[in-house]
Amino acid sequence: MKIVATEKAPKALGPYSQGYVHNGVLYTAGQIAINPEVNDVEATTIEAQTEQVCKNLGEVLKEAGTSFDKVLKTTCFLADMSDFAAFNEIYGKYFTSKPARSCVAVKTLPKGVLCEVELIAAVEE
Predict the structure, then answer these.
(1) What is the 3-state composition of the chain as percent helix, strand, coil, each rounded to the nearest 5?
(2) Rounded CA Rg of the chain
(3) 3-class SS at 75?
(4) CA quadruple 19, 101, 73, 42: dihedral positive or negative?
(5) Which of 49, 64, 84, 98 is the most exposed place for a label (fewest CB within 10 A)?
(6) CB 104 within 8 A of CB 116
(7) Of 86, 111, 19, 113, which Cα lies nearest the Cα of 59?
(8) Catalytic residues
(9) Which residues contact 15 (CB under 8 A, 6 or more apart)?
């Protein structure tokens, strides 16, 4: 197993890693809309937060040696399901290979953000 860690994505908020690669598969922790340059959430809309989440995931993918087109599965958490369509507009720009996905509404997310996404991706070894 190999830990995946990059300064270009937010540091973990607790006792966990940004991701792990095991047997050619990347498993990421959930990413929220923290801008790693300032270590805080700056975006206030679902669109801007989704964009930051996808940028963060892109950096973790890159560090692991893979990319968005190798993503197999995502799990998406929304604070408000009425944001579903707006979330999908941004999400769809990044996840063009249309990986399998679950998307659920949750009561609250860390730092009061509007969305969180975790993923599983293939990694060439």
Answers:
(1) 30, 30, 40
(2) 13
(3) strand
(4) negative
(5) 98
(6) no
(7) 19
(8) 103
(9) none
Q: Could you tell me if 25 and 71 are in contact, meaning their C-beta atoms sit under 8 angstroms apart? A: no
Nearest to 31 by CA among 86, 74, 68, 2: 74
Helix (H) or strand (E) holding 58: helix 46-64
Structure tokens at 20: 């792990």
Which amino acid makes up residue 90? I
Q: Is the model's pLDDT at 125 over the cut of 80?
A: no
What global pTM score does this model have? 0.96
Residue with tokens 């990319």, as numbered in its chain? 67
Helix (H) or strand (E) holding 19: strand 19-22
Give 12's DSSP letter: P
33 and 115 Cβ atoms separated by less than 8 Å? yes
